[in-house]
Amino acid sequence: MKKLMAANWKMFKTWDEAVITARKLAELVGTVPDDREVLIFPSFTSLKGVSKELASKSSFSTGGQDFYTEEQGAFTGEISPKMLKSCGAVFGLTGHSERRHVLGETDEFIGKKTAYGIEAGLKVVLCVGELIEERKAGKVEEVVDRQIREGLKDVPRDIDPERISVAYEPVWAIGTGEVAGPEEIVEAHGFCRKILQDIFGEKANEIRILYGGSVKPDNCSQIISLDNVDGVLVGGASLEGESFSKIVLA
Ligand code: PGA
């Protein structure tokens, strides 16, 4: 199972800034190590440019940060998996904490989106993770259990495990510089694995579980070597080719 090194560029970068960053990243990374895969989630407006820039580079792919649950129609402002794929995207992201807590997406809608994205041919990364109040109240397992089960509710049980990943991102560690400690990560990832096994049986061992939340060049190699950490999802430190290339190669 290759480690998935994913960059979430959120609402950053114009088209040309994104293309230049992707070019620089590919140059700095050179040949991606055999056991790694690099994934960029640019904004919709730069998706095609970044996909084209990386098209000839092996082990690089792109994805859409969001999508709607229809192929087309009167849904002003929305975008479909089919449109993402036409811009070169292979992946889609669902359940990111900013969509849950800033844009108000529910578990139910995230589950619908995840299943629709899979059905429409994307590989989907489902993000889960607790708020600081939930951690303090001892509810990490309750929250993660609910978010994974609801998020994957309608995903076919015979799915190719390559097509689904879970990103554990404790909300209090996102963009704060406060990274979860190794024990917290191992514990949460082990728990995610158990839930996935309960849902998918043995093939759950081939589903990648990524960690996200203040991953940086200087903490990535430790995080990536922990049990049940099959990749990372990086925000701030993925915005520059220099720092993200160090993470990819960590
Ligand atoms: P961060 O963001 O690396 O800036 O903490 C992670 C994410 O939002 O996926």
Question: How would you portray this structure in words?
Answer:
It is a single chain. This protein is an alpha/beta fold. It has a single domain (3-248), classed as TIM Barrel (Alpha-Beta Barrel), CATH 3.20.20. It is built from 10 helices and 8 strands. The longest helix has 19 residues, at 182-200. The mean pLDDT is 97. It binds 2-phosphoglycolic acid (PGA). Residues 8, 169, 174-175, 212-215, 233-237 line the site of 2-phosphoglycolic acid. 2-phosphoglycolic acid binds next to strand 8.
Ligand types: 2-phosphoglycolic acid
> Mean of the pLDDT scores?
97
Query: Roughly how many Å apart are the termini?
Result: 17 Å
Unreliable stretches? none
User: What is the domain tally?
Assistant: 1
State the order of secondary-structure elements, H for helix, E for strand.
Answer: EHEHEHEHHEHHEHEHEH
Treating each run of at least 4 consecutive H or I residues as one helix, how many helices?
10
For this structure, the CATH topology is TIM Barrel
Overall, the morphology is: globular
